Amino acid sequence: MDPGERSTEATMEELEDLLSTAGGEACGTVLQARPSPDPKSFIGAGKLREVKQLVEDENCSLVVFDNELSPSQMKAVSDELGVRVLDRSGLILDIFASRARTREGRLQVELAQYKYMLPRLTGMWTHLVRQTASGGGHIGTRGPGETQLETDRRHIRRKIQKLESELESVRRVRGTQRRLREKNHIPTVALVGYTNAGKSTLLNAMTGDNIQTGNRLFDTLDTTTRQMAVNGNITVLLSDTVGFIRKLPHMLIEAFKATLEELCMANVLLHVVDLSNPDWREQAKVVEQLIEELGATDIPRINVYNKIDLCPGEIPPIDSNGVVVSARTGEGLDALRDKIAEALGRHVRLIKFMLPHTRGDLLEYLHRTCSVSNIEYLEQGISVTAMCSAEAYARLRQYAVNSGEGMGL
Ligand SMILES: Nc1nc2c(ncn2[C@@H]2O[C@H](COP(=O)(O)OP(=O)(O)OP(=O)(O)O)[C@@H](O)[C@H]2O)c(=O)[nH]1
Ligand SMILES: [Mg+2]
Predict the structure, then answer these.
(1) If you classify domain 186-345 with CATH, what class do you get?
(2) CA-nearest residue, atom 16 of ligand 1
(3) Per CATH, is 348-399 categorized as 3.30.70?
(4) Which one, 43, 73, 121, 267, has least CB within 10 Å?
(5) Is the Cβ atom of 209 under 6 angstroms away from ligand 1?
(6) Phi, psi of 340 (to 5 degrees)
(7) How far apart are CA 47 and CA 53, in angstroms?
(8) Do domains 186-345 and 348-399 have the same CATH topology?
(9) What does pTM read for this prediction?
């Protein structure tokens, strides 16, 4: 088994957190070490009996597997245990479904759910048949045969297509908004990180905003973008997005790809790490892998080691790209702003120009390529303040009042 897929005490603890996030309560945990999964029942007949005993003793109504089971394994296990069986992906999908707020978020989750359901259809039908048969003397009635199953498959495929095209049109709108932002040349900084690392809390602390945060997994599903003043010279857009987790179901990554692609458009990534979690190194690795999968490795990155207020004693050595902060107490946030300014400063800078009245063409150029924040028509010329790219600065340098030093020119 891929080491990333292996269950450990840490992943089981996380599974319990996921379960309570979904509104359940764990009544027992079974961990098993075996070289490879049993093709039929995943855990093997002996272990299955042990789980069945636990289910009966504790009167459990649901069994959740930390690993992904094949549809037939899921059915075999559920038949044997006589209770509902979910795997980690199914549980995460369930949480996402309860959290999605925006139209795009809801469409994305629904799409992922249908994709998850499609190969599992056979098992679900049999389940249904068994229930009706035992529930009310319908013996002899014909169950849904292959024809029914095929109709349902077709139905779900059509539903998937419909969702995909609805998503497409929602995204076109967002694409327009993004192009508008690009046109205005406002640099963007995106927060990424493991779920519960403190991304939304950090966004609130940096922008004075009040978006929802919470000590539960997957609190944020939709992208939120806010303006943030990095310093007197630079204003950026800071965006918060869905958190990552180990073994994130693939259909969710696929469904959320467009939301996540926003990350690839950012000028700087802030990777938020929860330093108070004993498992933070592993979590950071998972995030690194997903950043790679999304093709965002080339974007300058700052590692933000958060929740330092919860870490008594010595701080572990961190990389030179890193900064230690507490989104709760505000400690280290100035240092973080400096780091962001440093990372961005090579690309954009707020410059004040004094243009001759005769150079309306340059004013037009600034409007077209930069974000202009202030214009005053004075006797000695037109005073313009704009967020400039190195290119724009180079072109209008002779009229600049302040310097664009350090922009790599
Ligand atoms: N003590 C302490 N708690 C923090 C800090 N930053 C965040 N938290 C808490 O950690 C929990 C998670 O914070 P969020 O900001 O919701 O985390 P997130 O990364 O946005 O999580 P998801 O949206 O679920 O991915 C909340 O209970 C916060 O109050 C910090 O610096 N110190
Ligand atoms: Mg959040």
Answers:
(1) alpha beta
(2) 213
(3) yes
(4) 121
(5) no
(6) -65, -45
(7) 10
(8) no
(9) 0.77
